[in-house]
Specification:
By secondary structure, this protein is an alpha/beta fold. The protein is 33% helix and 17% strand. The chain is built from four helices and five strands, in the order E-H-E-H-E-H-E-H-E. Strands 4-3-2-1-5 form a five-stranded parallel sheet, sandwiched between helices. Helix 1 links the parallel strand 1 and strand 2. The radius of gyration is 13 Å and the shape is globular.
Length: 121
């Protein structure tokens, strides 16, 4: 059985609590040593732009900046949907550490022939 984890996130800062939960899930997987990929689509692609993910969702919630730092330190990676990046006119060449523009084909290539645990937010 694969230990890979895929977290699919479609929501951006319009719902910071959902984003926080997705990042908490990704951080937990990555910090346990699981190869972890966050697949960012729709509004979530904006989170891969430096300086965007700076919100704190609620009192007592960890700041997104802390979660991004922990995810990076644990070796987590991101794929930002190329269609979404282009539709939002974002610079796909200037993303946060660990992020690259890539769609479903690179996601499936990363998963490979084994199953992966998936979460969708």
């Amino acid at each position: 059985m694969s230990t890979k984890a895929v977290i699919n996130l479609t929501t951006g800062l319009e719902d910071p609590e959902r984003v926080t939960i997705a990042f908490l899930t990704a951080v937990a997987a990555a910090e346990q040593g699981r190869p972890t990929m966050m697949f960012l689509t729709k509004e979530a692609v904006r989170l891969a732009v430096p300086g965007v993910a700076v919100a704190t969702a609620c009192e007592g919630c960890p700041p997104l900046t802390e979660l991004l730092d922990r995810y990076e330190s644990a070796g987590g990676h991101y794929l930002a949907c190329p269609i979404c990046v282009n539709a939002k006119q974002l610079d796909g060449g200037a993303l946060i550490a660990g992020a690259e523009v890539g769609g479903t084909v690179p996601l499936w290539q990363w998963i490979g022939d084994e199953a992966a645990t998936t979460f969708s937010f």
